[in-house]
Amino acid sequence: MRVLVQVKSGKVNSGLIRDLVGTVEGEKAAMGVFITLESPTSEMKIASLKAGFYHSPGWNRDFPRIQILTIEELLHGAEVKMPPQFGTFKQAQKVGKQAEAEQEELGFG
How would you write 45-83 as a 3-class SS string? Predict the structure, then answer.
């Protein structure tokens, strides 16, 4: 799953969110995150809601496709709402030297 992040300071507006939506679609990313120093405008919030949701088939849940977070929110513990990236599958055990030697003896090496 690919998530694009855009960081802006200074004057922000809904056009920046629409640009992010276009980039997410063009890059075939699942989601986009807009991080800003300024509080988002109501038009920015509406533009992000219009982008819809990303449905995670592995978790069978929907996540906002475009999310807006301020630096202040992040400093107070806010997080991007997205599917967990770790712990969904068991990792295979590492093959040690002993197992490699056994395979060579059987003619598989």
Answer: HHHHHHCCEEEECCCCEEEECEEEEEHHHHHCCCCCCCC
